[in-house]
Amino acid sequence: MSDVLTQLQSRYQNLAQLSFAETDSGLVMVTINNDFASAAVCLHGAHVCAFQPRGQQPLLWLSKDVEFKPGKAIRGGVPVCWPWFGPHPTNSDLPQHGFARNQVWQLSDAMQLVDGATELLLTLNDTEASRQVWPHAFELALKITVAKQLTMELMSTNTGDRAMTVGGALHSYFEVASIAQTRVRGLDQVSYDDKVADQQGIIQRGDIIVDEEVDRVYLDTLATCLIQDEGNQRVIAVAKEGSRTTVVWNPWIDKAAAMVDFNDEGYQTMVCIEAVNAGDDCHTLLPGQSHCLTQTIYLVD
Ligand SMILES: O=P(O)(O)OC[C@H]1O[C@@H](O)[C@H](O)[C@@H](O)[C@@H]1O
């Protein structure tokens, strides 16, 4: 057992809602169980791997071929993409979706709230290595509240002495019974860039139906999306704040097959709805300033 695991178990021994374990590769996983839901959070990437309201099916999709490896992003759940979304704008040698999802975060605080929900605070600060990739002093904090709904608040703070510009995403993978019986509502009439067709400024007409590879950047939208998961007879709501960009992604057959950590059939039971800061929706923070990107997911009653 690693020192980190022993320390966490001792520090939170009185918080019965939490338990700690390690993957074979040494990543620390926090499991949360309360009256409302269960969840699992990996300290590697501050990655929510699972969320399941009591008596319900899981809301988040995790690849059956997921790899828990130091330095590698976890396939499924909610990767935290930061401080940029997608490829780095000027240097293709830098990692896609930034570096935060490949770092080990600290569990800075955990508590039971008065209503019985659980709150975790995970933090990541700049290091010598991060400053070589991205030359800024920062604190990144992810507050995760596990209740009937799952709320993730990603707070970026400039702790340095010059301006920094942050983009990123809460890149949530949702589980559906069958993508053929799924619709995504909430983006009707919104303009989007289609990364598959390499076309800009297309207008969404009606609901989104995923019957091919979909990789779309919806612009200037604050909308709550509703995933109508007919096969499970449920509707998952995905609400957000601090983001005017929503990405909808499903890799479909060929791209799923090309990813070693994405099981070949997995595209049939998932869709990503991502709360994003990208393009002109990035935020320039002066010293001491912060930006908060929030995503909340829940089942519609
Ligand atoms: O494989 P990654 O780096 O986790 O990215 C997955 C997908 O993430 C989405 O957000 C992008 O729009 C896609 O283009 C990308 O393929």
From TrEMBL:
* InterPro entries given in the database record: Aldose_1/G6P_1-epimerase (IPR008183), G6P_1-epimerase (IPR025532), Gal_mutarotase_sf_dom (IPR011013), GH-type_carb-bd (IPR014718)
Q: Give the reactions, separated by semicolons, that this protein catalyses.
A: alpha-D-glucose 6-phosphate = beta-D-glucose 6-phosphate
Give EC number(s), comma-separated: 5.1.3.15
State the top-level EC class: isomerase
One annotated GO biological process: carbohydrate metabolic process
Is this entry keyworded Transcription regulation? no
Question: What UniProt keywords are attached to this protein's entry?
Answer: Isomerase
Entry binding sites for substrate: 75, 96, 101
Q: Which GO terms describe its molecular function?
A: carbohydrate binding; glucose-6-phosphate 1-epimerase activity
What residues sit in the active site?
Answer: 171, 274
In its keyword annotation, does this UniProt entry include Isomerase?
Answer: yes
Task: Name the family.
Answer: Belongs to the glucose-6-phosphate 1-epimerase family.
Q: What is this protein called?
A: Putative glucose-6-phosphate 1-epimerase
Q: Which organism is it from?
A: Neiella litorisoli
